[in-house]
Amino acid sequence: MRKSLLATTILAAMVAAGAAQAADLATKMPVKAAPVAPAFSWTGFYIGAQGGYAWADNSFSNTHDLYNTYANDASYSLDGGLVGGVVGYNYQINNIVLGVEADANWADISGSGSILRAGELATNCIVSNNPCSSKIDALGTITARLGVAFDRILLYAKGGAAWATTSHTAGSTDLEYLPASYSATTDATRWGWTVGAGVEWAFFNNWSAKVEYNYIDLGSNDVTFNFVPRENMPAYTSTVDQSVQLVKAGINYRF
Predict the structure, then answer these.
(1) What is the CA angle 118-233-68, rounded to 5?
(2) What InterPro entries does UniProt report for this protein, alphabetically (predicted)?
(3) How far apart (Å, rounded) are the C-alpha atoms in residues 60 and 152?
(4) 201, CA 20 to 30 Å: which among 54, 86, 101, 229?
């Protein structure tokens, strides 16, 4: 009898202790899950710097001079480097990134050439014994962008307006009688269109690097060479057609 009573007492004590321990567990604060990092977003304003290499095609046609002697077309290539800045804005919807961007670049893209006429080295830009030369001093674009984001990698295409400040030089140097020499330079800011594509990588939350290709078509425009001295050669007008291709690398900071 005493043994049964003792066993019952011990069992009751164990049940009470277990219930108290369970009550204590119920009042403890639940363990919080680790916070989830927010998804990366390309939305926001950005500024950047860039540099690159460019090559261009330059051709003259439909040239007319007051002497109406002959009209040879001329064509040659240009190449050189550029460096500049960029500003833009992106807005991301799911994995689609819409944006606008403008850039301006100092450039040193130049070239020259002569043509052959009747089997001999002849004039370029018509009345010019010297090779005709051209140079792009500055260029830029104003474009819309459409991209697809893969987290921190952005693939995009772009298109819009483009401009370039271009100069052309023509002339003739008479080594036997220098006073008979003449020359002229014409320059203007020309507008055209551009398309391009690139890839951008956000290597930090606010910093990204890009590589981009652009094709720029500046169209056809008439240019007039006003030679000096005028008495040696009257002015003439020619149609110039120019296109530029660029490969750029840059770094952007997003706000």
Answers:
(1) 50
(2) Beta-barrel_OMP, OMP-like, OMP/PagP_B-barrel
(3) 46
(4) 54
- Selected residue with higher pLDDT from 194 and 23: 194
Q: Percent of the chain scored above 90 by pLDDT?
A: 54
Instruction: Specify the amino acid at residue 72.
Output: N
Two tokens, residue 31:
């363990």
DSSP 137-159: EEEEEEEEEEEEEETTEEEEEEE
| Helix (H), strand (E) at residue 20 | helix 2-27
Q: Cα separation of 95 and 146, whole Å?
A: 11
Q: Comparing C-alpha atoms, which of 140, 134, 124, 105 is closest to residue 216?
A: 140
User: Burial of 166 by CB count in 10 Å (0-12 exposed, 13-18 middle, 19+ buried)?
Assistant: buried
The identity of residue 238, as a single letter, is S
Instruction: Give the residue with greater pLDDT, 226 vs 113.
Output: 226
Closest CA to 52 of 77, 86, 78, 83: 83
Tokens of 168: 């052309």
Residue length of the chain? 255
Residue-wise pLDDT for 49-74, tens only, equals: 999 999 999 888 776 655 555 455 67
Q: Is pLDDT at 3 greater than 80 in this prediction? A: no
* Torsion sign, CA atoms 141, 142, 144, 148: positive
Q: pLDDT at position 127, please? A: 47
Among residues 158, 179, 27, the alpha carbon closest in space to that of 90 is found at 158
The closest alpha carbon to 210, from 218, 221, 199, belongs to 199
Strands 96-113 and 153-172: unpaired
Question: How far lies 129's CA from each of 70, 149, 208, 232, 239, in Å?
Answer: 13, 55, 50, 13, 19
Q: Is the peptide bond before 229 cis (omega within 30 degrees of 0)?
A: yes
